[in-house]
Amino acid sequence: MGLGSTLLTGVLGVLLAAEVSLHGVQEVALGGFGAPLGIHLRADGLSAVFLALAALVSVVLSVFAATSKDTPGGFWPLWLGCLSGLNAVFVSGTCSTPMWALSWWA
Fold first, then answer.
1. Residue 28 in 3-state DSSP?
2. Helix (H, G, I), strand (E, B) or coil at 43
3. pTM, whole model, 2 decimals?
4. CA–CA dist 30, 54 (Å, integer)
5. Which of 3, 12, 68, 85 has the fewest CB atoms within 10 Å, measured from its CB?
């Protein structure tokens, strides 16, 4: 399940990069609240490249972890939590969003 989640994250990262290259910057305010109060996510060219690189590295690491016999039992929840926090930092549109994304998994 962890490997499938990582592969799905990689596919969605590539789709977001394609969307950014075709239609430009993509923005969304979660819950309808704007930048000062809410969580504002913004994907531009640089964040799409970072998401694609993180997806590539995470898929390679997840395949290695899935095939290794020495992977501890608590690896997948921690790994997927860190990966989602890192991806949230890449698409953060405000200064408070990275703090929220990283503190949520701390």
1. strand
2. strand
3. 0.77
4. 23
5. 68
